[in-house]
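User: Okay, second chain of the day. Same drill as before: sequence in, structure tokens out.
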Amino acid sequence: MLWHQIKDILAEKLSDSSYSLWISPLSAKLNDENTLEIVCPDTFSRSWVTEKHHSDITAALECLNKKDVQIIFTTKNGAQSAQPLLAPPCKQLRLPDIPKVKSSIRTLHPRFTFDEFIVGDCNIMAHSACADVAMNDSTNGACVYLKAGTGLGKSHLTHAVAHHIIGNKPFVSLNYLTAQQLTAEMVKNIKNNTMNHFKKKYQKQCDVLLIEDVHTLAGRVKTQMELSETLDILLESGKRIIFTSSLGPREIPDIDSGIRSRLLSGIITTINPPNLETRVKIIRKKAQNNSLDLNEEHIIYIAENIKGDIRQIESSIISIKAQSSLMKSPPDFTMIKEALANIIGNSRQLSPVVIRDFIATQFKVAIADLQSKSRKQSLSFPRQVAMYLSRKYTSMPLVDIGKAFNRDHSTVVHAIRVITEKTTRNTSVEKQVKLLEEKLEKKFM
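Assistant: Same drill. Structure tokens below.
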């Protein structure tokens, strides 16, 4: 059998301890003429064999004139939980051939994983760059600089990188901390006269370095000097680095030009506030995670009223969930509006949905009727007025205005043209629209 032949070759090439520990427990089967499936006892074994012995197995296949055979590594019982890997085994239980790995990791949020991260136009490049670092893909470079405001997801991505490495590469040495923690650790080592330990940890025993809030290094000359030396060593040896900050590298004051140059050396990407479409996806995901039943109208309403900080979205979902549980009733607009008022205040930025609901009240028609396909004058006129006011009082794209009424952008264009012409030619319509504008401004602005 092919696998037995491969094992014979590996037995001659590897040490007895390596062979008995890593190769002997493996089993394999040739699924077809071109695929060899190698089954490992668990995910740790799969990670180690893939990382350290894939090339050995490939070389053995070439010796057997089977270089076209593709190798696939699997596990017997599927993926194992990564949680036990957070607690390293005792020193005497460390397996042979595995280097002593000492990772330093800040507390990770259990839900800050790649699976939970919602990708949109605002963050797709940042997500891709961090995924490459996590999977040790250096195609786009090994250094990433994430710039983002509060609550936009930069910590989520760095936590996701750490989760992935811990779960899939347990022998990789990972140091994840904030710039302030790095400074405090360095000061402690200086006081204890143990800077050799500090240098060894970050320069010789570090495969991946994640530093958050790097802008807080401003003015810390000694920390900048040590970090500059560390970055040179890590970058020259191809190690992976991620920085996060609310400022771009050129915007950080009181920072050494050498550090600034190194921060500029990799991929620099900005996470922007999520657009409406991405906010809808985020709300839908968070509602699902919290077992909160929101319909699409509820979701769009929340998305249109909470912009920017994703943490406010999460707070609103938790608040609505709490009220729904206390009231023992499903969420409704009254409940949602109260929850949003507690988070963003009563003064809300106007949106097509807010204007639509206001017009529905003024004309005494149902929201569902404004969204219906009916072309009755009693419904089409209020609908057109609402679209006209949405264009005037918001910066929303025509497409998004149309969504509030279940219409496309061309219908919105037509409505704006119709109301503009009517207010120009018909004094009664002009006065009516003017009165609605005054009421709208008084209530919401």
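The chain has four domains: 2-75, 104-271, 276-344, 352-444.

User: Thanks, on to the next one.
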